[in-house]
Amino acid sequence: MKTRTPLSFVLFFLAVGCSSSESAAPSSGPSPVVLHFDAVDGAGAPYVCGAKGLHIAGLTDAIPGDLRFYVHDVHLLKGDRRVQVVLDQDNAWQYENVALLDFEDATDACSYVIFGKSKTPDTKRVLRGLPAEAGPYDGVEFTLGVPVALNHRETADSKSPLNTTGMDHGAADGRQFVRVSFYSGTTGATGDKDHNLLVFRSVCNNVTDGGKIPVSPEECAKPNRPTIRLAPTGGFDPAKDAIVVDVDAMFRGYTTPGTPGAHVDLSEGGRIDCYGPLNAGDLGSQIGAERCGRFYPNIGLDYATGRPKGTQGIFRIEKGKAK
Questions:
Q1: Three-class secondary structure of residue 34 per DSSP
Q2: Which of the residues 92, 99, 135, 268 has the least number of beta carbons within 10 Å of its own beta carbon?
Q3: Angle CA 194–295–276, to nearest 5
Q4: What pLDDT was estimated at residue 289?
C-alpha cells in the first residue's frame, strides 16, 4: 500500500530548504577596480610619444618628450566618505600604497635623455587594486607624489617603482613626483638639449640633509603633495571613465616658449626649464619662483609653502573615455 506524504510537510520542507539556501548565499562584496589614466594636450589630442603639432604652453608645434608621475593614498568616493583602494603589489609599478604612472615609451623624441635620467619602453597608464567597499562611486581621490616614509630611501635599496633611476634625486632630495618635457621647433632644434622641462619634488632638505627621514610631510619646508579630488556630476565608473591629465594645464601661466626678448620665467634659451634645484631656491628665490612657481597654482599649491592653496586644474574626469 502506498503511503502519501502530507502536502503540509512537503511545503514545510521546501520552505526550510529555500530559507537555508538564501542564508548561505554569499553577500556581494567589492570587486577589483582598474583606474584608467590618459594624457592630452590643450586641444584634447593624445599626449603620446611620436605625436606632433600639440598645443602646449601657447605653442602649436609641441612634441612630447616625457610624462611620468607618482601617486599614493588612492581612494574612491561614496558621498562624503573615502573608500580606500588597496593597490595590487605587482613588483613593478605598484608598491605598498604608491604607484608610478608612465606615459613615455622611449621612442621618437621620448628617446632623448635629459641630465642622464634614463627611460624604458615600458608604460603604465592604469592603477589596479581592491576597494574596501563595492560601488557605485561618486568620484576618486589620490595624492600626488611619494609618501614621506618611502621618499628618502636610497634608490638602490628601494623596491620598484621607487628604484626607477629616471625619477630619483638621491636620498636627501627624494623622488621626482612629476617629470614632464616637450620639444618645439619654435624653441630651436629638437634635441636632448632643447627641452622644455618641468620637474616637481618636495623640498625637505631642512630635515634630510642631516640624514633624517621625516616622520610627517609637515616637517618639510615644502611638502608639495597635493591631494587630487575628482567628483564629477553623475558619479564615477572606474570601468568606463578616465582620469585625464591635461599637460597644457601644467604649463599654464608661463610665457610662450620662444617669445623674443628676456623673460624671467624662461631659460636663457627661451625655454621652460624648471629642474629640481630650482624648487629649493638654489638658483635664487626669484628665479625659483618664476621658473618653477608658475606650476604651483596649476596643481593647487602655494609656491612659498608647498601647501594647498586654490584649485588644481590639471586632472579631470572624462566620462566614457576609459581604454
A1: strand
A2: 268
A3: 60
A4: 87
- The vertex-231 CA angle with 176 and 244, nearest 5°, equals 45
List of residues 6+ apart from 172 with CB closer than 8 A: 152, 205, 208, 209
Give Dmax over CA atoms of the chain in angstroms: 112
What is the model's pLDDT at position 279? 64
Map grid coordinates 574612491 to a residue: 76
Q: CA angle at residue 37 from 48 to 121, to 5 degrees?
A: 45
Q: Which of the given ranges, 22-36, 117-131, 268-282, has the highest pLDDT on average?
A: 117-131
Determine the Cα–Cα distance for residues 121 and 135; give it in Å rounded to an integer: 35
Average pLDDT over residues 117-131: 93
Nine-digit cell at 48? Answer: 603620446
> What is the Cα–Cα distance from 160 to 98, expressed in whole angstroms?
10
Q: Which residue has the cell 633624517?
A: 212
Segment 244-258, tens digit of pLDDT:
999 999 999 999 999
Q: Does residue 21 sit in helix, strand or coil?
A: helix
CA distance 179 to 181: 7
Give mean pLDDT, residues 273-282. Answer: 74
Q: Where are the domains of the chain?
A: 28-318
Q: Which helix (H) or strand (E) segment is 20 a member of? A: helix 7-24
The continuous run of DSSP H or E covering 170 comes out as helix 170-173
